[in-house]
Amino acid sequence: MSKNILITGGAGFIGSHVVRLFVNKYPDYQIVNLDKLTYAGNLANLADIEEKPNYFFERCDICDIDRVMEIFRKYDIDGVIHLAAESHVDRSIKDPFTFAKTNVLGTLSLLQAAKEYWNGEWEGKRFYHISTDEVYGALELTHPEGIEPPFTTTASSSEHHLAYGKEFFYEDTKYNPHSPYSASKASSDHFVRAFHDTYGLPTIVTNCSNNYGPYQFPEKLIPLFINNIRHGKPLPVYGKGENVRDWLYVVDHARAIDTIFHKGKIADTYNIGGFNEWKNIDLIKVIIKTVDRLIGNPEGESEKLITYVTDRAGHDLRYAIDSTKLKDELGWEPSLQFEEGIEKTVRWYLDNQEWLDNVTSGEYEKYYEKMYAGR
Ligand code: NAD
Ligand code: TYD
Q1: Mean pLDDT for the chain?
Q2: Using one digit for the tens of pLDDT, what is the confidence trace for 50-104?
Q3: Under CATH, what is the fold of the domain 4-371?
Q4: 113: Cβ–Cβ under 8 A, 6 or more apart, which residues?
Q5: Alpha-carbon distances, residue 106 vs 111, 113, 144 (angstroms)
Q6: Ligand lying nearest the CA atom of residue 313
Q7: Proximal ligand: closest to the CA of 239
Q8: What is residue 156's predicted lDDT score, i.e. its pLDDT?
Q9: Which one, 49, 155, 206, 315, has the greatest CB density within 10 A?
Q10: How far is the CA of 90 from the centre of ligand 1 (A)?
Q11: Is residue 244 within 8 Å of 272, Cβ to Cβ?
């Protein structure tokens, strides 16, 4: 089994939770965090584990195949968990080339490095690629006859979950990406599978729904809105706020990655989701209520900050993952109820204003102003 593990994108949101989990849980592994430290990567996310003897950091661009090869040799890498990516849909609309470069060519360079370094000796090796549900495209908002959504369903193996439609994304759902971000992720997924089918590289792919929790860069809905409410700034709701997302607490995603890395079947695909669908506007009202309560505002005070703005181009209507296969085959399920997860998340951002100030200084502020000018 792999013990010298290269985790790419480990200074980002999900990556930092995966690095923390592996460093703490597997003291006999070497965990190498490879990250370029773009605007989204922040080593402060890992301050609590950076001194651990089994943790190593290498600043590197995944597109730089020579350096990636050097790192494989230096640590005798035998397992890869690949999270490094450009990850924000709005940025991909403004600058699709950066997404093609990092997400497609960067993934290709990692695949090539693994293939060359392992050189056909696949025993005990694995290349695990982290993807998104967004590659599947968008689902309709439909519901069973006579029932207004959201309805609870037992369609999955989970007891009940909120759903806004009859259809879900399954592992064999046809790819149909709409944004430059999801198109680049879909392309990278195809390259990963092609490296298995063509060369025999031991690959696994997972597609996960929207994550939330600590250390998420505040350009994504939940941390952006918590921060804006705290500072009395407008909350830019795209379109009518009718779009639906399936939210999973990030630590549960990290637990799923651990399970799949160790027990998943080579060449297989697993969907990971929260069975937890929310219309954006309803979710935003929960965030407002929670922040207002925790900072001592009267209930509903910050609803006046809701500002409907021009919709995102090509905005996918609904994402909904069915992760029954992962539960049935590997026994993974989300551990946290949404109410508990959102409470923990809001508290974390309110308690970590310094982290927010650090990551939002400079480059991001300018980008943010430009993005919302005229909206
Ligand atoms: P993030 O933007 O927070 O972090 C990305 C990390 O990758 C950063 O640390 C950044 O510095 C690094 N990086 C970017 N370009 C790089 C390059 N060229 N070379 C090396 N490092 C580079 O992203 P995230 O939200 O943590 O997402 C991680 C992965 O999970 C991505 O592959 C994303 O597609 C996938 N994913 C995310 C979500 C979600 O809700 N956030 C859901 C499903 C899947
Ligand atoms: P986001 O967090 O960017 O994740 P994704 O686009 O990958 O789902 O957005 C979540 C939802 O919130 C999505 O439907 C877009 C919407 N949204 C807003 O309405 N306003 C915002 O300022 C942002 C960032 C997102």
Answers
A1: 93
A2: 999 999 999 999 999 999 999 999 999 999 999 999 999 999 999 999 999 999 9
A3: Rossmann fold (3.40.50)
A4: 65, 68, 69, 72
A5: 9, 11, 43
A6: 2
A7: 2
A8: 47
A9: 206
A10: 14
A11: no
Task: Evaluate if pTM is beyond 0.90.
Answer: yes
The answer to whether 8 and 62 have CB atoms below 8 angstroms apart is yes
In the chain, helix, strand, coil percent, each to 5?
45, 20, 40
Ligand located closest to 37 CA: 1
Nearest-CA residue for atom 10 of ligand 1: 41
**Structure-token pair, residue 351:** 């308690």
SS3 (DSSP) at 63: coil
* Closest protein CA for atom 3 of ligand 2: 220
pLDDT above 90 coverage of the chain, percent: 85
Pairing of strands 126-132, 203-208: parallel
The predicted pLDDT at position 70 comes to: 98
Q: What pLDDT does residue 157 have?
A: 43
Q: How far is the CA of 86 from the centre of ligand 1 (A)?
A: 6
Structure confidence at residue 165 (pLDDT): 84
Give the three-state DSSP class for 210: strand
Catalytic residue among 55, 136, 181, 270: 181
Strand partners, 137: none
Given the residues 61, 78, 134, 322, select the one marked as catalytic: 134
Q: Is 90 one of the catalytic residues? A: no
Q: Which residues of the chain have pLDDT under 50?
A: 155-159
Is 333 a known active-site residue? no
pLDDT at residue 373, as a whole number: 58
Q: Which residues contact 253 (CB under 8 A, 6 or more apart)?
A: 14, 17, 208, 211, 272
Spans of all domains in the chain: 4-371
Q: From the CB of 212, is ligand 1 less than 6 Å away?
A: no
Q: Is the C-alpha dihedral spanning 46, 12, 244, 128 positive or negative?
A: negative
